Each structure stands twice: as structure tokens, then as C-alpha cells.
Amino acid sequence: xxxxxxxxxxxxxxxxxxxxxxxxxxxxxxxxxxxxxxxxxxxxxxxxxxxxxxxxxxxxxxxxxxxxxxxxxxxxxxxxxxxxxxxxxxxxxxxxxxxxxxxxxxxxxxxxxxxxxxxxxxxxxxxxxxxxxxxxxxxxxxxxxxxxxxxx
Amino acid sequence: xxxxxxxxxxxxxxxxxxxxxxxxxxxxxxxxxxxxxxxxxxxxxxxxxxxxxxxxxxxxxxxxxxxxxxxxxxxxxxxxxxxxxxxxxxxxxxxxxxxxxxxxxxxxxxxxxxxxxxxxxxxxxxxxxxxxxxxxxxxxxxxxxxxxxxxxxxxxxxxxxxxxxxxxxxxxxxxxxxxxxxxxxxxxxxxxxxxxxxxxxxxxxxxxxxxxxxxxxxxxxxxxxxxxxxxxxxxxxxxxxxxxxxxxxxxxxxxxxxxxxxxxxxxxxxxxxxxxxxxxxxxxxxxxxxxxxxxxxxxxxxxxxxxxxxxxxxxxxxxxxxxxxxxxxxxxxxxxxxxxxxxxxxxxxxxxxxxxxxxxxxxxxxxxxxxxxxxxxxxxxxxxxxxxxxxxxxxxxxxxxxxxxxxxxxxxxxxxxxxxxxxxxxxxxxxxxxxxxxxxxxxxxxxxxxxxxxxxxxxxxxxxxxxxxxxxxxxxxxxxxxxxxxxxxxxxxxxxxxxxxxxxxxxxxxxxxxxxxxxxxxxxxxxxxxxxxxxxxxxxxxxxxxxxxxxxxxxxxxxxxxxxxxxxxxxxxxxxxxxxxxxxxxxxxxxxxxxxxxxxxxxxxxxxxxxxxxxxxxxxxxxxxxxxxxxxxxxxxxxxxxxxxxxxxxxxxxxxxxxxxxxxxxxxxxxxxxxxxxxxxxxxxxxxxxxxxxxxxxxxxxxxxxxxxxxxxxxxxxxxxxxxxxxxxxxxxxxxxxxxxxxxx
Lengths: 152, 745
Fold this sequence. Notes:
heterodimer; A: alpha+beta; 5-stranded mixed sheet; 5 helices; 5 strands; B: alpha+beta; 29 strands; about 25% helix
């Protein structure tokens, strides 16, 4: 079926099976392979993208359900996302980097909603994003640091 | 001039004798007291730009023109015979380009890939390549496999009774353990049961194969590109020159991704048949059924000691559940090698079960063995009325107790002292209370190899833009070894590490290197990198000498400049390299062997503080102090991250991770991440991380490895902390709320 999507500011019309998840449309049809699929069943957070500013698990979200929506992925541009990228670099908030696109998108959603999150709010917002390398300390510090940058 | 030499290397407890090609090396050594510039400074990862923008291309991201999607049929039974399968019906599905079943696929490393009698739930039986995932799924449904279920064994005791071994039992004896135990003043006997821990790298096992008339290219999420190449050559009878393996970015491995894996052979065979590129990415569930796990093991110890706590004898056995693959990982190595103890009799029994093949998992054998033995030692400390750290100090050994060899370096006593000080060990009893939440503190020692060694090679070239390109025949799992190599090169060339471009993960590039395992990568490749960099440095200084008419010996490269030692000349290195035009200055280096007759080991100590909620049974690890002796630290930022990662995986093992097998069906019931619980951000403790010790005086660049060490002592320290908190000991990990509450009743 035909689905219209705005992805990172660009408009696309894709013809995808009704049951195709958003992650497959992004990765296989639009070649936006930054979004990663690590479990494919909504349990790890790696595939997190923003749909109309809300974080969603793109492996469980049907592309058809996003018709007309604005999607942002790790390939997006933006000051806040750039601040997060710098903070993740400086705090070493990743190792292999496979879960990182999802981490950044969850962090972006958090900071857009809550510019100055408490430590507990960071833990709550980011706990759904699994990282097997165990870069959690850097991730938490990076989110806090990016929030500090916003404040400054 | 290159020469062939014979050298010994210890890889995850197995000694290998290798012939290796080394080149003569005039690179000056690093004096221990002279800080070599960028080395030892925190350096952010070179891969940050690619990984944080989504542009990093992992194997599972590969999209070649006309690429097909592959899917694999797996057995749902613990043991079965395939009585029929409709391969032709699957071939008739529109969009299907290749279907293979038992007998159609070459073996992987001598092992059957597609089984007619699949020996475990999740064993591969058939594979399909199709234009789309939907077509592949439709073809999968058309296969209509018929099974005859067979009897199975998933229970260690049953396997032991049947005497079905997956690998040869290992017996080790020194002294006369029986007599020494009989004569010992103190005897402690205990049992421990370790769970199967699933790797769960975030990137599943995957491969993209492109079979062409002129050769095979395989993109593989692998810890060993050269190993993968050899396996593919073996499977398909191809020459090395016709197989290229690429792994540019990799989403973790932790020991489960050596070589090309069966998935690499399946993808290549499908590509060969379809004459199209084929991508095969395992689902999370298939990943957790078929790609390996840390072996579950049951330990029994009888420890004899003097009243002073000094070990006299240990009798120990370990029964390991290897499933249908893997080897006798060194689970009793900590008993054999960690402390002075004259009399030992150790038995390791690697059992075969109808479960997927085991695989190395970060410090395979040694982590779970340390978890068990370090708790048995705490029981001895209690029996002897000794402080646990004091017991460990009393049993310290200055030579490898199994060979008598001296260590190249050992800072274990220093690790105990520093860890105790940072943790507040001496006042740990003040943590204890009778309230609902009970706190405790426990310690464990760490022993591992990690000295690295040959063969490892590196090539460096620098052109007119003064930005060196370093080529190393390794792959970066995500550990940060790429960045560490750039740091090592940057020191020789006097430029910032971020100016270095590092090329890895491609067998068609120069610079053969080791697989990423055994905490060997950096210790192996860094000396080769430095040597290659030194050759380039020497040539650049000679060019500068000609240009500026100053003797090369009076020039140095530092902070991006060529400087004369008298301070009269300071010019950007670029002023020299720009004369090169399109030419390069190149240099290569190789890794020399470690000294003969010495033991190369890493050591350390971790102390964990836990809080146990006696109402809910929930354990929280509040703080971990980690002190490790790893020789020279190249990049403290990357090193700390490695330590944190090891601790978190250790917490998972101790508190929440356990593959559960239904004894009635023989199949795994928690292959997904919703019920196989790996740690999250909420489980992160406060971590105090320190490195002790100077650069190892006997090793090239003084480097010892760090990949494995930090996971090794964590679960044992947690186990001992829980016992300290509760005054009773849990003998089976993970310490889930259920087990805690049962123990408290």
C-alpha cells in the first residue's frame, strides 16, 4: 500500500506491504540504515525513532500507521542532536555503537520533552534502550551533559 | 630483513606453538619513566563520527544491488529426525531464488551446517534466498517439514550417567592431593552451579555473501576476518586469493563470533546457487538458540588448609554443559593458577547435551570458575577466622604455581591494597544490619592471560596532507582498539590521534593480524603499529633533514611540527610532506615474540557492595571498586569503558541472566530479551576504576590486555558480598529474587 512519510525533512511516498514495519521501510526502502534492528520484537530499543516527536519502536510500528507523519532518525540534523552526539563522544557513551542510534533518539525525545531532566528521569527514559557493551555510565552522563549545554 | 621464528602463545588458556614471520626492528623502547605524549591521555573514539551519525555501515546494513534475503528453517525439537521436507514446493514460490536442505551445504569447520538429524532445538535444517522477506517467509511455510522426535538429554546428571562427552575430560594433578587433604587442619567442601549466559551482542550474527566467477566476498560480523577466510576456503575449496572477508563495523561479539560462522557458509552457498548477493541476519531468538553461550557448570571443591589459612590441597571437579559444540573451557584455571597450593587434583568433564553449541564468552571458563572458587575461598576464610583479603594475601604466589615460571609482572598485592582502601574494606562490617535491607561487601581476585604476541603486522603510509593511514589486519568489535592504535601511531609521528585514519576489517588489505579474543588484540598489534610508525618517522626526519639542512638526529616530530632539538626550527610537518605530491612515505612493522620461559598474566581485584531487600529478594549492586594490573594504559577513557562493560556483564551473570531450558521438551524457553534479562541503565552501580602497575618490563610496549579481565572477578565479588550481607550463601547463580527469598526461608 502507498504510505507518505516525511523523514528527516524529506518527503517520500513508498509502496510497502501493509504489514511492513517502519524499520524495514527506513532501512531497506529508503536506505536509512542508521536505524538498527537488534531484536525485531520491541524488547531492546535499538530501533527507536521519533514519529511526530514521540519515541517509537520502529520494528513494531507499522509503516502504514505512520502515513502522513514526520519521522526523525539518527541521520537527522539538529542542534540538540548534535549536542547529544558531542556529549556521547566526550563521555564515551558507546562502544560498538549498534544500540547508539536508538540511545540518541530516546535521549533526543527526552530532552525535547524535558530539557532539564533529573538523574532519575534520565534513568527512566533511557532504561528501555539496552546496551550489551555496558556503556550506560557514559550514556547517562552524556544525556546530562547535553542537557547542561542546553541550559548554558 | 624478515625471518621465521618459533614462538609460544597462550590463547584463553590453550598454549599454541606457532611459526611466525617477524621483521628486524630498530624502534626504540618506551622508557617506563618517560610519558610518551598522547599515550595515556584520554582520547575519544575515532569511530564517533560514523557511529553517532548513522553512517557506520555494519554487516547487517549491507545492501548490494540485486541482493537477496535469506532465512533459515530450524528444528523446533530438542532432538529429531527430519522425515520429509518439500524443498521443491519452496522453490516454486514466486521470488524464491535458491533453496537448500540437508546435504546441500558444505560443512563449516568440519561440522554439519544443515542437519537431517538436528541435534538441538534451533539447529539449522534448510535455507532459502528470495527477492523479499515476504517471499522467503512464504517459502518457509511451504517447506512443510515432518519430524520424528528422538530422545534427548538436557540434564547434566543424565549426561554424566550416560558418559556422553562433547570434548575430552581434562584431569590435572600436582603433588598428592588425597594425602594432603587427609592431613589438613581445616577442610571446606562446597558446591556451586553456574548458569548458561547468552552473549546477546546487539548486532546478531549475520553475513552478506557475494559469490562471483572471480571469487567470493563475504561481509561478516566477525571477530576474526582471517579465520573466516580460512574457513570459507576450507568449506568451498577456494584459494585464499579468491576469498575476501570484510568487517568494517561490528556490533559486538564477546566471543560468539569467531570466524564466518555457519551463517557465512549458508549465505555463500545460497549466493553461489543464485548467482546473486545474499544477506542472512539471524533473528534474536535464533541467535540465542544457535550461536553459543557461556557453559553452565557445576563445581565441587574440597579445600584443605592450615589453621593459618594457607592452602595445602584442592580437589575439584567441574561438570560443564557444552551442548553440541565448544571445548573444555578452563573453568578450573583459577584453582590451578591463582594461588600457591602444592597439592591439587582437578577434573573437568565437558558434557554433550541436546542444546546449541557453546562458545567462548568473555573470559570463558575463567569467569565462572573464579565466581565459584573465590566463594569457596571465602568459606575457607570464615572457617579459618580470617579476613577474606588477608586469606588471599597469605596464599599469594610469586611464580606461576603450575609451571614454576616467573611472571613478566604481577601487581596483585598492590591491587588488594588499593581496592581495600577505595572500598572502605576495613569497616565493611559496619554495613551489616538486621533490617529489611541488608548490605554487604565482598571481594574477588582476577587472573587472566592477555600478553598478546605474533603474528601481527601493520602498515603506515603518509602523503602530502600529513594525515597518516594506518592499516591493521584486525577487526574492531567496538572495544576501541582502533582508537588505541591511532594513539600509538600518533606518538611516533607527533600528530594528534584524530588525524590518523585507521583501516581495518578487510583481508584484501595488507597487515595480517590476530582474531579479537583472549584480550590479545591491542597487546599484539600495538607494537607492530609503533614499529611501522617509527619507520615512517625515520624517513620523514630524513626528508626534513635534507630540506632544512639539519642532521636528522637533531630533529624531532612533535605537536604536528618538525622541530630541531636546539629550538631554532619549528615548521609544520605538512611543510615536509607536501613535497611528496602524490607519493607516499610508507613503513611496515611486525610484532616480536614475548620472552621465553615467563608467564604473562593480568591480575586484579574487585570489591562489590550490595544491598539485599529481604522483603522482595531484590539485590542491588551499589558500588564496585575495580583495580586491575594491565601494564601500560594507552587510552584511559577506552580502558575505563572496557572495565564498566565487563562489570555490567558480570552483574548480569550474577543477578539476572540465565538461559532456561524446559526439561520436558528440551527447548529454551527464554530466547528473547523480554525474559532473558540483561542489565539496563537502572542496574548501573557506582564504579571506582583504577589501574596499578607500570608498563610490563618484559612485554613490547609494556601492554597487557583488558578485554576479559574486568568481567572475571565481578560475579564472585557480588556472591561474597551477598553472603556477607545475609550471613548465608547462595550456591546457584543468578541470584534472582526467587532464589534469595528461598534461601532466606
